[in-house]
Amino acid sequence: MQLIRGKDIAEKVLAECRQDIAELAKQGLKPGLAVILVGDDPASRAYVRSKDRTCQSLGLHSVKLELSADTTQEELLAEVEKLNADPKIHGILVQSPPPPQIDEAAIVRAIDPMKDVDGFHPINVAKLALEDPTGFVPCTPLGCQRLLMEAGAETEADRREIEKRHCRQFTYPAIRILSDWRADGTAPATPETAIPKRIVQYWNETAIPEEIAAVMANWERLPGYHYTRHDRRSAIGYLAERFGKQVVRAFSLANHPTEESDFLRLCVLWDEGGIYADADDMVVGDLDALLARGGGAILFQEQFGAIANNVICARPGHPLIKTALNMACAALIARANDGTWTKTGPGLLTRAAAVYVTRTPEAEARRDLLIVPQYQLHRHVHPHLKLSYKATPRYWNAADGAVPTLIRDVLSQIVA
Predict the structure, then answer these.
(1) The model's pTM
(2) String of DSSP letters for 245-285
């Protein structure tokens, strides 16, 4: 065990800061930090005093605003706007937690991202996820990283270990794991696919809108493939017969037909294998050529790293699908307060895939799983057709003026 002497490292960091501040002074610049404290929380007050003393000792321009506990949201926003416009202020910190009448998320969004020294503004969170160095980085993890680096820790190895430990719960480390796995490996060695020529689709109602039915018919007419289309009633019957009450209960607790569809595809692929395709995906190419790439499962990685779940190819009993099925079942039964993308959709499949590649021997995983860029799917399938039902409130990701669920889910997983 190695003892990290934080006080010594802190003195080193402060000395570096003094040098930087001196260089800025030669250019006529003086960094300015504003800290806002609302209320009289003792721990928050002590933290703010500490930051103010540090600024004073370093010769920074320091502004400390102490507002009463009954300060309104509008009053606090007005103070933030003043600081946003103040050219002497380069960093703004609103001490957390604020009193209950304050919407902390709204305050974070109101801070100019270029002055968001906490790094909590969505723009800075996105920059962190994209490894864009122009944004503010949250100070606590940055400080922890500095401590580890000063102690001589192998940060790359530590990063991978941390990602392995957390990929079941959080999508961002799972994306990192899968991107590394793809970059480090080759295609499966299996010469012939183990995926059966079966196609499964789902539409919750018996009566299918004409435009949807036309798209689904393209799959149904494929020669040499066994085709199954489930509605809600037939899905419940299938699940009751093949899986039992617990799985039927999970399916029944889905908040939306999309969650039903997400869950059903995992059940069917685990039980029977084949290809699951969403109702808004149109087959346009040779599926035999797709399956001929070999392996026990073929998944498609989206541009920003998540695993798409609109088209999934898998053999029966694939352990990756079993992991995803168990995770989705648990989330549905627990009534997890997550969005569809995270709870049963691509976010979940991404995490399950990361669990599989980290817990399966390397050679076995590469024989039984192929992950390819999503653009390669487009040779065979045109995904997410623009259909009229997507403009209605019934569509799970309908645009209603709010931030799209996908973006909210990804950002929430990143900052968790």
Answers:
(1) 0.65
(2) HHHHHHHHT-SSHHHHHHHHHHHHHHHT-EEEE-TT-EE-S
